[in-house]
Amino acid sequence: MLGGSVSNRKVRVLTADPRDTAGMTARSLPAEVIEVVDADPSAFGPMRAPRPPHQPWTTHQRHIAALIAVAVVAAMIGAGVLIAHPWRHPPTWTRYPAPAVDPSGTDLLVLGQAPAPLVSAIRALDASGAAADPGELFASPGAHTNVGRWILFRVDRSQAGGSDLASSAVLDTAPNGASRLEWADELGRWTVTSFGLEEARVRAFAAALSWHDDAPTLDRSFPLGDLTPIGSVAGFDAASRLASGLGQAALPNGVTVAYYRSVRYPTAIASTPAPDDAAGLMTFVLPGTPTDVRGHPGVLANSVTLGRVLTWVEDGRLVLVAGPQDPDSLHRLATSIEPTTDATAWRAGVNGASITSSTTTAVPIGFGTTPDGRNWTVSGRFGTVTVVCATVDAEPGAPPPESACVADQHATLPHMMFIETSVGTIVVALSNAPTGAILKLHDVEDHLTFLPLRPLVWNISAYTFLPNKGDGYSLIEGSG
């Protein structure tokens, strides 16, 4: 037995056979004696002192504990420990915000090694301040504007406030496989343009578009298949303005171009405000190959109307040099580009001697008045060189009246000429069609106005106007 004191006690316990229960009483049962040993607490070593009773926290202690807990949580957040939010799911859409278009360079560019005399210099309405539309172009491998399969969307935020639904929009289709879907809601006018895709897929694409975090989005559940995003619609628009717009009667807004005389194709240098991806998108508009131009990624391509084309983005502008030259000569022309900020010097090769080569007398073309009351008139001379001049009344207290002229030695009619003045760019539309041409104007609200050109001299008709900012226009040729 272990050390310590043990006291023995004897207890009488009554026991019986459990099978014999009839008539038994406690007194008739036999008894057994069992020893009970009392436990000694000190038998297994010394005992710990009893724990004092729990005392509840005071209000002051609770406040201190709460402050400590808040401080610990704040420290963990500051250290990045508590930044995981398992209840938050990653977004199920991809954003396509509008790219930055910031033309820091001048649009007045000349060739330092010009292959021939400068014969025309045109500066269309400035578009550098216009915000680019958000949107994206998706294309299958090897696709071009009229080849393969592609689809794009854009949002014109300036036309917000509609209540249309994409599901109820009418799909316009063309025989060549192109289609167009438009609707306007409270965010703007949405446009989906596609080529080579069936209507069901175009409508499913439109239904997958939405708006999150101040940008249009495409739901990632939409099955793109082999369609991949290749660039912004702003870059696509810039490439289209130069690749297609230079061959139009009316130069697109935001394009500046200078032409040098040549036998087959005139050598041209042109530019327009553009995002960084515009040069790469030129391969979608004009199939070509990547190249390096003046230290920038560029594209060398071929055009039916422009000849060989070299494009790249520099100082926020998509620049194009085009002509009949071979690739090495075109690269040398691009290297020789020189900027100028003087519009008179830019047109130096056109004005001056070229103006005096016209042998006819001046013919009045048109006139107008600006909203602030300044009168302007336009006249022209037509001979071996087409020359149009504008005269604008001086501002109050500033004599004499302003005068500016533009000459063009290869003006194949119908044709448009642009005169830069202090009141804006005056447009002169010219045609030689016997039945006359029509000028189509459309304002920012898409209101259309059709104006017939007036007979001027010989078989030439003309119309001149000062467009408002944001107006568009095109020349519809007459029959001949």
Outline the structure in words.
The termini are far apart. A hairpin with a 3-residue loop joins strand 17 and strand 18. The protein contains seven helices and 31 strands. Helix 3 crosses helix 4. A seven-stranded antiparallel β-sheet has the order 5-14-15-19-18-17-16, with helices on both faces. It is 14% helix and 38% strand.
Tell me the fraction of residues in β-strands, as a range: 35-45%
Mean pLDDT: 77
Largest sheet, described in full? 7 strands, antiparallel
Helix and strand content put the structural class at mainly beta
In total, the number of strands is 31
Computed Rg: 43 Å
The coarse silhouette is: elongated
Helix coverage percent of residues? 10-25%
Span from first to last CA? Answer: 135 Å
Low-confidence stretches: 1-7, 21-29, 80-87, 349-359
Number of helices: 7
Main sheet: strand order: 5-14-15-19-18-17-16
